[in-house]
């Protein structure tokens, strides 16, 4: 082989990468929802990028289980290996949850396990299907200090603090390296929440009171109800859609949770959703409309009811947007992502100002993320001043490192 020949990574221009990401993402999303028998006719570069898409969207294990066609040898081998890595990681997480439950019971401390941990515990997923990088826990603010102390005694070191959670990780002494997909031995992080809320895009929507059981028991608790779990997953997806970071696995979570729901179940979603600061439940329309585009699992009366509570820009946008538009399959940095979610002209203006002149807190969080996640935080872009960012953005589109890093790893990986 000629050592001077350009690699896929060097030879493939970014616009071509974006076209491939969109094409592959949409195909795999439809295949996961409704598996077909015919393999796609992709180029060698596209088969490699397909690995990045599967990793970005957290669906390698699901695709390995559900696809009816093998694809290229390298693709099939990647999915098989990823499913094994996901399955091997789950016992570590399960054991950590047992230890957390035991320690919390001994302290009289009530915690709620969130999202992936509960989806596995309830049997919504079997080992090897759904990846879990973190263990998310909810604790009352009044007991947060006790929870932090418990994690410290278990060997966890405090990391990044954001408006959403506090992160904890056990140091392993290994330098982070660029890897594609899931790895069973990767460090397990704990993310400690005192609230379940999202900023959409400036207005907070909080469902904490629906999630915490009443009364909770000491130890690790389940959600207060099935509806609370679904509302949390919907709110999480809504927050991710604003930053173009929703994953196909998020949509699959919603599809599995809504499978077999009765009319009375959907009515309970509307009833509990009305018990929030924003009772129209408008924010649930975009994720449910997107899920329904692929899975067809949401009753039309529910979509119509929720759409009626949406202001026109959101209703119009999400009547046609696809997963590729609101996920990491969208390669480019956006100037004002999610601005259509603003509920008024004043809120829209405030959001634009915040994006153009970010607060000290936003800049500090940006820097903290760049230091804790150097491989996916944006490279030099993460450390670029706001003024230079604006100049770069005006001169040329800036690719997102969270997307570019797995694409580069996939293009540099083994044979397709």
Question: What's the layout of helices and strands?
Answer:
Elements: H1 8-11, H2 14-33, H3 44-56, H4 60-66, H5 73-107, E1 110-113, H6 116-121, E2 134-139, H7 144-153, E3 157-161, E4 166-169, E5 189-193, E6 197-199, E7 204-206, H8 208-211, E8 219-221, H9 226-242, H10 248-258, H11 263-273, H12 285-295, H13 300-308, H14 312-317, H15 345-356, H16 360-372, H17 386-395, H18 401-411
Parallel strand pairs: 1-8, 2-5
Antiparallel strand pairs: 1-2, 3-4, 4-5, 6-7
Helix pairs in contact: 2-3, 3-5, 3-18, 4-5, 5-7, 9-10, 9-11, 10-12
Characterise this structure.
Strand 6 and strand 7 (204-206) form a beta hairpin. It contains 18 helices and eight strands. Among the domains are: 102-170 and 184-224, Beta Polymerase, domain 2, CATH 3.30.460.40; 225-327, no CATH class. A six-stranded mixed beta sheet has the order 3-4-5-2-1-8, with helices on both faces. It has 416 residues and is of the alpha/beta class.
- Unreliable residue runs: 1-6
Architecture of one domain, according to CATH? Answer: 2-Layer Sandwich
Q: What distance lies between the first and last C-alpha atoms, to the nearest angstrom?
A: 17 Å
State the CATH topology of one domain. Answer: Beta Polymerase, domain 2
Please, how many helices? 18
Q: How many strands in all?
A: 8
> Quick check: average pLDDT?
91
Which structural category fits the helices and strands? Answer: alpha/beta
The Rg value, from CA coordinates, equals 21 Å
CATH class value of one domain = Alpha Beta
Outline the biggest β-sheet.
Answer: 6 strands, mixed
């Amino acid at each position: 082989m000629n050592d001077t020949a350009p690699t896929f990574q060097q030879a493939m221009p970014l616009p071509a990468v974006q076209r491939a990401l969109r094409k592959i993402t949409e195909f795999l999303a439809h295949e996961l929802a409704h598996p077909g028998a015919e393999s796609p006719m992709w180029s060698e570069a596209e088969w490699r990028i397909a690995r990045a898409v599967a990793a970005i969207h957290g669906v390698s294990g699901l695709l390995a289980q559900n696809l009816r066609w093998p694809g290229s040898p390298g693709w099939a081998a990647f999915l098989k290996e990823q499913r094994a890595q996901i399955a091997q990681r789950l016992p570590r997480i399960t054991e950590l949850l047992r230890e957390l439950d035991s320690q919390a019971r001994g302290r009289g401390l009530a915690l709620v396990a969130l999202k992936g941990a509960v989806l596995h515990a309830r049997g919504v997923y079997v080992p090897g299907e759904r990846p879990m990088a973190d263990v998310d826990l909810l604790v009352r603010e009044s007991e947060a200090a006790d929870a932090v102390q418990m994690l410290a005694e278990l060997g966890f070191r405090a990391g990044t603090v954001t408006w959403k959670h506090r992160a904890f990780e056990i140091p392993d002494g290994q330098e982070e390296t660029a890897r594609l997909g899931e790895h069973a031995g990767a460090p397990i992080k704990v993310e400690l929440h005192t609230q379940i809320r999202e900023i959409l895009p400036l207005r907070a929507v909080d469902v904490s009171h629906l999630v915490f059981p009443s009364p909770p028991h000491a130890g690790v608790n389940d959600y207060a109800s099935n509806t609370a779990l679904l509302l949390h997953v919907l709110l999480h997806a809504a927050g991710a859609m604003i930053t173009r970071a929703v994953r196909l696995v998020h949509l699959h979570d919603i599809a599995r949770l809504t499978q077999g729901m009765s009319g009375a179940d959907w009515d309970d979603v509307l009833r509990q959703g009305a018990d929030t600061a924003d009772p129209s439940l408008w924010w649930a329309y975009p994720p449910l409309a997107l899920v329904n585009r692929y899975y067809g699992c949401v009753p039309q009366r529910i979509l119509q009811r929720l759409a009626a509570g949406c202001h026109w820009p959101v209703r119009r946008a999400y009547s046609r947007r696809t997963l590729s538009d609101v996920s990491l399959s969208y390669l480019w940095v956006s100037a004002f992502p999610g601005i259509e979610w603003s509920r008024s002209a004043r809120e829209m203006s405030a959001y634009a100002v915040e994006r153009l002149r970010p607060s000290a807190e936003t800049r500090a969080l940006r820097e903290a993320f760049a230091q804790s996640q150097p491989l996916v935080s944006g490279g030099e872009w993460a450390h670029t001043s706001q003024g230079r960012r604006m100049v770069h953005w005006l001169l040329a589109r800036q690719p997102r490192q969270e997307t570019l890093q797995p694409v580069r790893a996939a293009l540099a990986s083994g044979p397709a």
